[in-house]
Amino acid sequence: MPIATNSPDAQVAVADLNIYLADPTSQAALAECRKVAESLILTGALIVKDTRADQGANDTFLDLLESYFAQDQKTLEKDLRPELGYQVGVTLEDTERPSCISTPKCINIISSLPASERPLDLTGHSADPKARFFWRMTEEREKTGLSGMGMHEAPNVVPRAFEGVWKDKMEGWGGRMKAAVQGVAEMLSVGLGLPASTIYDASRYGSHLLAPTATDLTKYGHLDRYACLSLGSILQVVMGRKLIMIIPPRDSIFAGFHSDLNFLTIHGKSRYPGLHIWARNTGKKMPVKVPDGCLLVQAGKQLEWFSGGLVKAREADCLFMVWLGWVAGYHEVVCTEGTLKAMERFKAETPERPLWRISSTFFYHLSPDYELHALPPLKAEAEKRFGPQDEYGSMSVANQVKRELGLIALVADE
């Protein structure tokens, strides 16, 4: 089991997948594996170098999704599959809620963070303005016959206007993302002291999703003019009995504070900044900038459960627990000054293109019939390094996914 220094100065590491692929048994590759594990343990995130994730392929994918989401509402609605929990096809804006809204412990984490490190206030925020498209990237097998598997075995949706190109372009970029995150999963297994195939074996038939997220910048690409009073003010003007708070514009929410329900999330480079993540070792909010030729990886809830809390992806109960790292894995996407500058640049350089922020995102899952539980050696290491952890219990991944989808309003409560 790798041992790391719990330094408050530790940063999200950059690991080189190319070194591992060249010779997984080399000392250099093993050092990269330890780097993968420690970055996810300490910060909940990782930057990974992979020469297969070239920027040209990412740009082709982003162009496709910008054109798709620029279609009219009625056309997009034909690709909805709400009966499948929106796990294939499109999810329109104002549908998915940040999981934090439904989780009191998550609200506590926000209030426990220092004011300068808090995410944008979710008070009054119901559903996110983002839209999504889910394209399953699952290794097919015979249907399991288990109940509740419909959303995990559903056929993909191909938009009519893109029938000639959609599958090839989705599989083209999605295949690169899947290969990268599977490589990271193998490196993580090794870095955690497990056999290299451990995570792959548990995730081989996972309901992996190429999951581009889209925000219409013509509608939502602006800063909020007024923030809640608790954020403070520059000037107070008393007029009669009224106190007017005049405050500067603040960032506005595209995707509210949340953590992902899957095992690992991998992101390609977006054309517009705005992603913030929170590190386990510091509790600090960090804007993310993905270098060319690299991908961003984040821990999800399935990994937290699998590792017995050694890697975190969720909420804290109090300030003490924030600093023990329960904030890791949380993130938000917001409109910032940097987003506005990128918008102006792209409007000047490509005025004919739709103005949509597309995230190049892939959700990597454990297999739906895998019995999710904390691996004893990983939980023991978590308690050795970070103190007592939750009792995670046991649950099938299919049931865990269904439960989490209920928290974000994608399946109805039963």
Report on this model:
This protein is α+β, with helices and mostly antiparallel strands. The protein has a single domain, classed as Sandwich (Jelly Rolls), CATH 2.60.120. Strands 1, 2, 3, 4, 5, 6, 10, 13, 15 and 16 form a 10-stranded mixed β-sheet that branches. β11 and β12 form a beta hairpin. α2 packs across α7 and α3 packs across α7. The radius of gyration is 21 Å and the shape is globular.
Output the CATH topology. Jelly Rolls
In terms of DSSP E residues, the strand content is 15-25%
CATH arch. level architecture: Sandwich
Which regions contain 5 or more consecutive residues with pLDDT less than 50? 1-9, 225-248, 314-326
CATH superfamily caption: B-lactam Antibiotic, Isopenicillin N Synthase, Chain
How is the main sheet built? Answer: 10 strands, mixed
**Morphology call:** globular
Helix content: 25-40%
pLDDT averaged residue by residue: 84
N→C terminal distance: 42 Å
Question: Could you give the count of β-strands?
Answer: 18
Number of domains: 1
CATH structural class: Mainly Beta
Instruction: Report the C-alpha radius of gyration, rounded.
Output: 21 Å
Number of helices: 14
Structural class: alpha+beta
